[in-house]
From TrEMBL:
Taxonomic path: Bacteria, Pseudomonadati, Myxococcota, Myxococcia, Myxococcales
InterPro entries xref list: MUG/TDG (IPR015637), Uracil-DNA_glycosylase-like (IPR005122), Uracil-DNA_glycosylase-like_sf (IPR036895)
PANTHER family, alphabetized: G/T AND G/U MISMATCH-SPECIFIC DNA GLYCOSYLASE (PTHR12159), G_T MISMATCH-SPECIFIC THYMINE DNA GLYCOSYLASE (PTHR12159:SF9)
Keyword annotations from UniProtKB, A to Z: DNA damage, DNA repair, Hydrolase
Keyword DNA repair: yes
Organism listed in the record: Anaeromyxobacter oryzae
Protein name, UniProt field: Mismatch-specific DNA-glycosylase
Domain annotation Uracil-DNA glycosylase-like: ranges: 7-156
Keyword flag DNA repair: yes
Length: 178
């Protein structure tokens, strides 16, 4: 059994990214979005969410930029389709408690799979800013950055949404002492 991937979190983050669950590869190497074909780190940088291009093994540096990352379900899998609804619901409860405790200024759900579980009454399919909150935090939904995501193929189709997330943060200075 693979170990869960540790959260990279702190109180009062500008954005807490919530992945669906770690990939088997990410769990093995101990870093978020570590699969070679996953452009998550390039998307963060290209959208202006990080001033430098981070490598997966630098994921802890997210905290320097007032960003954090966790998962909706801790169990690693090859695909999110392997997760049961019960696992996702249990993860949602734990995640809500985490968000309420940490109080990020925004939760960015990375992958539309989590939306019906985390926001069952949102009624707003697709990526973008949502009227609903999760654990008291405003929500922004991003497409899954995986290269396997056929609904949003290619880097540019995903980058649009990462840039829109960044635009919602303008004028929101970091609370971290530098």
């Amino acid at each position: 059994m693979l170990p869960p991937l540790p959260d990279i979190v702190a109180p009062d983050l500008r954005v807490l990214f919530v992945g669906i669950n770690p990939s088997v590869f990410s769990s093995k190497v101990g870093h978020h979005f570590a699969s070679r074909g996953n452009p998550f780190w390039r998307l963060l940088h290209a959208a202006g969410l990080t001033p430098v291009l981070l490598r997966p093994d630098e994921d802890r540096r997210l905290l320097e930029f007032d960003l954090g990352i966790t998962n909706g379900c801790e169990r690693p899998s090859r695909t999110a389709a392997e997760l049961s609804r019960a696992e996702l619901l249990e993860g949602a409860t734990l995640l809500r408690d985490k968000v309420e405790r940490l109080r990020p200024r925004r939760v960015a759900i990375v992958g539309l799979t989590l939306v019906p579980v985390l926001l069952p009454r949102a009624g707003e399919p697709g990526p973008g800013a949502k009227r609903a909150t999760f654990g008291g935090a405003p929500v922004f939904v991003l497409p899954n950055p995986s290269g396997l995501n056929q609904a949003y193929p290619g880097f540019q189709s995903k980058l649009v949404w990462f840039r829109r997330l960044r635009a919602t943060m303008d004028g929101a200075p970091s609370r971290r002492a530098r």
